[in-house]
Specification:
- Four copies of one chain form a homotetramer.
- Chain A has two domains: 39 residues, Homeodomain-like (Arc Repressor Mutant, subunit A, Orthogonal Bundle); 135 residues, Tetracycline Repressor, domain 2, CATH 1.10.357.10.
- Chain A is 80% helix and 0% strand.
- Chain A contains nine helices and no strands.
- In chain A, α5 crosses α6 and α5 packs across α8.
- Chain A is elongated.
- Chains in contact: A-B, C-D.
- Chain A binds a DNA duplex through α3.
Chain lengths: 179, 179, 179, 179
Amino acid sequence: MAVLEAAARILETRGLEALTTNAAAERAGVSIGSLYQYFPSKQALVAELARRQQAGLLAALERELQSRPPRSLADGVRRLARIAAQAQLERAALARALDQAEANQPADAELERTNRRIGALVADVLRQFAPTAAPVEVATRDVFAIVRGMTDAAGRAGEDDPAGLAARVTRAVLGLLGP
Amino acid sequence: MAVLEAAARILETRGLEALTTNAAAERAGVSIGSLYQYFPSKQALVAELARRQQAGLLAALERELQSRPPRSLADGVRRLARIAAQAQLERAALARALDQAEANQPADAELERTNRRIGALVADVLRQFAPTAAPVEVATRDVFAIVRGMTDAAGRAGEDDPAGLAARVTRAVLGLLGP
Amino acid sequence: MAVLEAAARILETRGLEALTTNAAAERAGVSIGSLYQYFPSKQALVAELARRQQAGLLAALERELQSRPPRSLADGVRRLARIAAQAQLERAALARALDQAEANQPADAELERTNRRIGALVADVLRQFAPTAAPVEVATRDVFAIVRGMTDAAGRAGEDDPAGLAARVTRAVLGLLGP
Amino acid sequence: MAVLEAAARILETRGLEALTTNAAAERAGVSIGSLYQYFPSKQALVAELARRQQAGLLAALERELQSRPPRSLADGVRRLARIAAQAQLERAALARALDQAEANQPADAELERTNRRIGALVADVLRQFAPTAAPVEVATRDVFAIVRGMTDAAGRAGEDDPAGLAARVTRAVLGLLGP
DNA sequence: GATGAATGAGAGTTCATTCAT
DNA sequence: GATGAATGAACTCTCATTCAT
């Protein structure tokens, strides 16, 4: 969908504040009326963008875990971190803008579900290998916070090496969960 | 300054979107004209708010380090993390709103300087104890990302125990830097 | 015509503001393109709706008068009032919405003609029995105003007894005309 | 207030549909921002217009009744009808547009109150002289419907003689209530 | 004929900022 | 200095209408 790609590019190049419905429509070479035929509101447009982003992440994570079940906590975390870092750095500015948008607007139901599935997937790995003192929900939340925080910062700083980033994220997460 | 406190309270209770110059002036019991005599623009007002927040953090960090120089990396990180967690959880919603605002507006020079001083202070501790493989700037950025990411998430989730949070942050940071 | 009935139902249940061409087409199970093949504009659609409504009223009035010519002013007014009250209360919300629409859009020629025939029919009864001081056109206009005003108000208030309403309308009209 | 008078004139000359906030502001020689400083919404603007109109009517009715209490039903109705006819014919198109607006938007509280006081005033006169079979509320509603219906129609037809109109309204109302 | 994606003028509303008093 | 009425560009969203298929 041209509108989605246009919106993504605006988010990417000029940030959340620059994303207006008119700008998205114009950039997509489409009238504002058409935009509203595809998306009932600006929120819906942004939510769909976020949902696709997260759906891509979820698919990548599932693919990784199904290809080869993690043999240890370190193995699992390392591989999940690599996927997440890759996803975030691919279109770093876009990913950050979407993170911000998610924090601002009440979660779309579909997006919510996708996010919960990602959370469950991570929680599963944690539960399997790391009988942490802290409840799994807290640990999962912390893991997400670390991944998101570090990848956002890396993206903002212009880093573009997912492998190096993933390695650092892995160390931090293992430290958090660690022995 | 009444205007700053008013703006802070709006940010805290109703978020970045609700902070309008008129709302801040009214809440401060001051005319909008006066607000613009103190601050040349809304950006400047928000930047000043962020600067004070960071100045407070900087002062607290300096006080901690000067009271007793860190004996080890673990000792240093643990104490810095506690300060940072405390600062962020004290007025969690405000801190998050400011983080978000900072991400959106081009950095104010004064604020930039304050942030750099905090960075330098942390970098000093790292340099002293952790001859990391990664350059110190990257390590510092990562440490900040972890602290900010985890405390924001904790704040959003309603956590209010700085000690527990600080302990988890410490584990993650030491993991990142660690052997 | 499915479109007309769909438009009528929207008018009835959700009022003039909710009647959009797209809504009418969708409700009729017809494409918006087809709607515009039947009716050149929204105005034309609404006018046709109003015309049918009035045509129904006209037919009922004619049937009543032809079945048994009025024996007196009171008899004539009473019977006409009953017909009018019945027509208006049958689909009260629809009738009111149409009244409102008529007031807003420049009169359609066909609708105008139908309305004039109703006027002539009433004027005939008046002329026959009531040599009023006022010119017949004024009297006719007043009679319509009373009937429409009272039935609209009754409909809005949720009345649904045409007989009682007709009795009151009759008293008012006879008072207007009477000695 | 310039905005109110501008809005009134638009209503008067071009009807409810032509009244847009931009049009009202422009005609008042005021920016759209200023309009919204006086009135928080278009609804509020229209409601205030209606409220003033009705407040004027209420004041006139009270003045009339207090100057000389009605001696009979006929006397009371005649005098109230004259006031109402005068008020409606003074700015007939405006009055009609406001009637229509009132029917479309949920009643403003203040306006509601004014209308209730007018209703109570009329109901008092009815109660005093006309122990009707019908409940007073129905009678009051009918009286209003007759007055409004006849005056609207008269205004639309270009009548401008309040005395003649009032005489006809009086006959109709007395017929309704009559012996 | 029928379809429905596309159009775009225009609606109501917000808010950072200015400037005469 | 302080005030706050005034500004207007910009925003989200609607809907009657068109026209290529």
